[in-house]
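## retry 2 of 3
previous attempt timed out at serialization; input unchanged, resubmitting
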Amino acid sequence: MNDMTMTERRKKAARSTRATAGTDGSTAAAPARPHLDRLVATAQRVGPAPVAVAYPCSANAIEAAVATQRLGLAHPILVGPRQRIETLARKENLDLRGVTFAETEDDPHAAARACVGLCRDGQASVIMKGSLHTDELLGAVVARDSGLRTPRRMSHAFVFDLPGDPHPLFMADCVVNIEPGLMDKRDIIQNAIDLMHALGIARPYAAVLSAVETINPAIPGTIEAAALAKMSERGQITGALVDGPLGFDAAVSAEAARIKGLDLQGRERPDLLIVPNLEAGNMLYKELVYLAHAECAGLILGTRVPVVLTSRADSPQARVASCALAVLQAKGAPVTTRTG
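## retry succeeded, writing output
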């Protein structure tokens, strides 16, 4: 297995994504991903964006960059030690024709700083994580002299494509902010709302999750959720209807809300879920992916350019969709992600 080329691994991955195994050993076609497919198709129509790929010194990172170029989503700029990247690409039979290089020393911190410089100088409009650690990349992005900081707190948002669900589901923040306070959550919500506006969702419904639907001082998240709902009413959060606290069941199920005696005024399930902290969000997003068979795209927000954080465990489809999401955010191109 360790001796397989990247090409062989890609073929194996392609076969596994086309069919999923049942508990009885049978196979079924992989679920359709209409919402993510729509993101990719729209990004292809608006045209590729220059994407600085930070330290792509693994086969997966190079393959992700090449895939975005092949699909017309990006003009990738590979930022890092050129000789090492080219040697690895040859070994894995990856075609780098048409790819631009921005050579740095063989140091992830140097590559991260170079990516920031390319964006600050207008040569790139998106940053994509390669094979460096997340904190190495984000440390350069939020440095005081980066030129990429904004008055808002940096946060992350996912968009999920759940099998059979007619609408995409957004969720924040499952990746960046470990234990956000009230004003941090205000920025997390506003960042996600602004992304949804860019994708054509004019007035999303956001549910702030907690364990219960009533205020309980022993559960600080309930107090913050209620405050966020009131902040939305008073214009401190704009462009969305925000409600909370809501348990996950009451938020996504009208029947559960009815049984609990909650009057949600006929609202359907939320467009956006706001989790109380990273621990809860990280578990919930992985449950959706691994148990509910969702696929997702994700993005860092609250910076002057979008940042794509890819994981080694991400599927090829998730990597491509995340890049498409970043391109649409960078270009401000609307896409109809919700019908009805």
